[in-house]
Amino acid sequence: MVREPAALALVVKGLKKNYGGLAATRDVDLEIAAGQVHAIIGPNGAGKTTLLSLLSGALAADAGEIHLFGQPMHGHAEQARVAAGLVRSFQITSVFDELSVLENLQVAVQRGQHRSYGFFHASAGDRAAREAAMTVARRVGLEKVVHQLSSQLSHGARRRLDVGLAIACSPRVLLMDEPMAGMGHEESGDMIALIQSLKEELTVVLVEHDMEAVFALADRMTVLVQGAVLATGSVDEIRANAEVKLAYLGEEETQ
């Protein structure tokens, strides 16, 4: 029996971004299958975070195309991409410290419903949004601290809240920038388990320096070097690629 190819969640063609004379992203082409974790790796300065910013709409590309399940995203503002299901979880957590965990998640739910999200108290009585926020809190393992101020959370809990904020926007493709940054071994293990469970519901594009986590999570990998794609393949293919070893993995694995 011939297996049907996986649907493409995200297709990127010829994506470019220059900062003056510096080419941060050079003709990047990507095909990311639905229901997979696709890792983007590379040395510092390779353009990984710039790429996520271009995909999310936080940065405007100089050229190129971005398609989400066949729908063009290039030229659309960040909020329009969120509404279409292309959502980013940030490297530096973007929570409101003065709000509780539940209130933060409720704001994100309201954002996903295309409402104004600058003033929480204007819609604090929204019961449906509150119930949706509680569902997300349970999903990311924060149900026991929903009434705690976000400023009082541990680092690992804040990172789970950051993922929760993205999930609350009902993503189809979730862009994750260094979700394991600053975590200890146990917290990293919890985050790996959470990301693995997300594959059942959505597609994950993962930028992460922790190669142990990347190898545990990724279905496919793309290596960026100096803003350009050096290689794309399975974990085994990337680990065996001589050019990748020379440019990045060999250095990482000997540190």
Describe this structure in words.
One of its GO terms (cellular component) is plasma membrane. It is a single chain. With about 260 residues, the chain is an alpha/beta fold. The protein folds into two domains: about 1-85 and about 170-255, P-loop containing nucleotide triphosphate hydrolases (Rossmann fold), CATH 3.40.50.300; about 95-170, no CATH class. The chain is about 35% helix and about 25% strand. It has helices at about 50-55, 80-85, 100-110, 125-140, 155-165, 185-200, 210-215, 235-240, 240-255, and strands at about 10-20, 20-35, 35-40, 65-70, 70, 85-90, 175, 205, 220-225, 230-235. Strands 6-7-8-3-9-10 form a six-stranded mixed beta sheet, sandwiched between helices. A four-stranded antiparallel beta sheet has the order 2-1-4-5, with helices on one face. β7, α6 and β8 (about 205) form a beta-alpha-beta unit. α3 (about 100-110) packs parallel to α5. The chain is globular and about 50 Å long. Mean pLDDT is about 85; it is low at about 115-120.
